[in-house]
Amino acid sequence: MIEIKKIEPTKSNLKKFIQFQIDLYKDHPFFVPPLISDDLGTLSPDKNPAFDFCDAVYFMAYKDGKPVGRIAGIINKQVNEKHNTATARFGFVDFIDDEKVSAALINAVEDWATENGMNKLIGPMGFTDMDHEGMLVQGFEELGTMATIYNYDYYPRHLERLGYEKEADWVEFLMDVPDKIPEKYDRIADIVKKKYGLKIKKYKSPKKAKAEIGRPLFNLINDAYDGLYEYSRLTDKQIEYYIDIYLGLINFDLLTAILDKDDNLVGIGISMPSLSRALQKSRGKLFPFGWYHLLRALKCKTDRVDLLLVAVKPEYQNKGVNALLFQDLIPYYIKYGFKYAESNLELETNNKVQGQWDYFTNRQHRRRRAYRKLL
Questions:
Q1: What are 57's strand-pairing partners?
Q2: Residue 152 to residues 173, 277, 346, 354: CA-CA distances in angstroms?
Q3: Ramachandran region, residue 163 (left: φ > 0; alpha: ψ -120 to 50; beta: rest)
Q4: β pairing state of 87-95 and 120-123
Q5: Nearest to 259 by CA among 191, 325, 307, 205
Q6: Do 184 and 359 meet the contact criterion of CB atoms below 8 Å apart?
Q7: What is the DSSP letter of 211?
Q8: Are 306 and 272 in contact, with CB atoms under 8 Å apart?
Q9: 163: which residues sit within 8 A by CB, 6+ positions away?
């Protein structure tokens, strides 16, 4: 018999909710666990500013008294108001390969969504785009990343059996880091700098970076991403929350800011040494020894770099500004001995973004999906 329990968001309960996923994938070669402290912050109503405009519920499934699944239901009222919709989200979903378990979890969120006046359920999605989204449907034998979801290959089959259909797909690419800047990138970057009066700005001090580009960075993200699928604009409170998270651990060699002639931020590229192996060794915990593995990875003791974020002001998009970013970043990738670069999630329809990888040896190695069902 499957028992579904609503989980009150206390610290103790949320730790069990998070730990279920880590235990389900224990010693899996491609799963990358989250930092438990990060997920606690995301799921806690008293910590995550997204709860100012989101409602959420958490459920866990038990079989013979043992946990066998988990799921969150989320209503982002800001996005619903923006699009005049009544859509709920499911996320943080994991379950054993038992169709009764997955059905019980999904049904619990469907019932909750209907009770709250929603007529559509999509997912996996988080509270906002700053959270993990998209169920893996291709690339199950690829090492996951800190910024993405890994799931067993039976997950999509379970959802489709329950009547869920494709809503949107994202693709990801793995590039070889070249031994020099591609000639065309170099040429385009020089033209763009001269034509638009743009310049590169580098930082060494987190304090100075936070003061000068902390808020402009997230305002730029809001402007650049506003038209993307289900994008939830970051509020002032969220921006303050994410400034410390994003700029607190950055190797500033791997952050490139592009300014116009008036020193306004018009483009940003943020990379980070891959923390995937370090997170696997830490098992999601900083203590007692997780910090050592993460610190070592942050010092670029890895052959892979994650392209966490690329954002360009709308009026400068499709004008070659991305070439300017990589003209600066590639020499640092070479300096640190990176052999491979991972792109972040890109909507499969975003051909212009994907076109920038044509200058590199690349392969599209993962695909993930948001599913939908009308309630």
A1: 73
A2: 20, 19, 21, 26
A3: left
A4: parallel
A5: 325
A6: yes
A7: I
A8: yes
A9: 373
For tokens 């009026």, name the residue. 315
Query: Taking the complete model, does pTM exceed 0.85, yes or no?
Result: yes
Could you tell me which of 126, 178, 89, 204 has the C-alpha nearest to residue 359? 178
- Quote the CA–CA distance of 39 and 281 in Å, as a whole number: 18
- For residues 287 and 283, give the distance between their C-alpha atoms in angstroms, rounded to a whole number: 10
State the DSSP H helix or E strand holding residue 352, giving kind and residue range, or none if neither: helix 351-355
pLDDT in tens, the chain (375 residues): 899 999 999 999 999 999 999 999 999 999 999 989 999 999 999 999 999 999 999 999 999 999 999 999 999 999 999 999 999 999 999 999 999 999 999 999 999 999 999 999 999 999 999 999 999 999 999 999 988 999 999 999 999 999 999 999 999 999 999 999 888 888 998 999 999 999 999 998 888 888 899 999 999 999 999 988 999 999 999 999 888 777 777 889 999 999 999 999 999 999 999 988 888 888 877 655 555 566 676 777 889 999 988 999 999 998 888 899 999 999 999 999 999 999 989 999 988 788 888 878 989 999 999 999 999
Q: Name the amino acid, one letter, at 236.
A: D
CA of 216: how far to CAs of 45, 204, 309, 344, in Å? 26, 18, 14, 21
Q: Which amino acid belongs to residue 165?
A: E
- Contact indicator for 367, 135 with CB cutoff of 8 Å: no
Amino acid at 218: F
Neighbour count for residue 45 (Cβ, 10 Å) = 12
Other Cβ atoms within 10 Å of 83 Cβ, number: 10
